[in-house]
Amino acid sequence: MKIAILSRDPKLYSTRRLVAAARQRGHEVRVIDVLRCYMNIASHRPSIHYKGEDLGDFDAVIPRIGASVTFYGTAVLRQFEMIGVYPLNESVAIVRARDKLRSLQLLARKGIGLPVTGFADAPDDVQDLIKMVGGAPLVIKLLEGTQGIGVVLAETEQAAASVVEAFMGLRANILVQEYIQEAGGADIRCFVIGDKVVAAMKRQAKPGEFRSNLHRGGTASLVRITPDERSTAVRAAKIIGLNVAGVDILRSKRGPLVMEVNSSPGLEGIETATGKDIAGMVIALIERNFAAGKTSTRGKG
Questions:
Q1: Cα-based distances in Å from 58 to 1, 19, 31
Q2: What confidence score (pLDDT) does residue 212 get?
Q3: How far apart are CA 22 and CA 37, in angstroms?
Q4: Which domains does the chain have, with CATH numbers?
Q5: pTM here?
Q6: Distance between CA 127 and CA 160 in Å, rounded?
Q7: What's the rounded Cα separation, in Å, for the pair 196 and 141?
Q8: pLDDT digits (tens, 9 = 90+) for 208-260
């Protein structure tokens, strides 16, 4: 099989592991900078070009598209789908996952447990918005933030109102969420491949920090998850439409609460914490599901 990996940096751990796993299983693999791709969007013969070369001969594509290039990256991925290349995760599912508000609304509609979340546009509504999520302490999140950037814990209602008003003054889109005290600055990253959680790790924030992201100095350790957590993670990935996902869960008094569904979960933390060959499992999923033009959400926007 000939596999393309859409990644801007071939030196990244996740990219290198996927390349190694694909080659180990006898596949031809190539890393392609998504921003160097350009497209002919014609109904009779759509095509993708890269540095003067036609990329129409790939069997499958693995999107590792950074949040900052979501718009162009998913456009390129859609073009691969148009010419019948099998995508590990489809463009429509990646767009859903990257839109935090939309993804939470989709999960809520299907009854997935979530932290109480508020969203507003007008500064006049700030006090009622804070009350809606249970008051302080509360978490304020930039919709466009990644890796814990743009996430603030406001410990008093006055501080919360100031931060919300400041973000709104900058015309930034934000979510206001209840703070789950009992989680103790930890969350569970469930790595979903297909219809299974293949690995899970507990991410613990460093002392004095509430964000558990490994990029923010958090630590990762092996964790045993409950059947309820396992089921929640698999359902969340399926609702968003992802074949491979990192589902972040908080442990609360009322059960597992989904914080986020990540469409390009990193491999380094989970492979290091669990000792599992996650990259090999990703390639095995492609081998099982590969078929030219097989895209389950095709035509659904």
A1: 8, 15, 12
A2: 55
A3: 22
A4: 2-96 (3.40.50.20), 117-179 (3.30.1490.20), 182-286 (3.30.470.20)
A5: 0.87
A6: 9
A7: 29
A8: 555 555 555 567 788 899 999 999 999 999 999 999 999 999 999 999 999 99
For residue 240, how many other CB atoms are within 10 A of its CB?
23
Residue 71's identity, in one-letter code, is: F
Residue type, 4: A
pLDDT tens, residue by residue, 150-187: 788 888 888 888 888 888 878 888 888 888 888 887 88
The residue whose two tokens read 């596999």 is 3
Burial of 78 (0-12, 13-18, 19+ CB in 10 A): buried
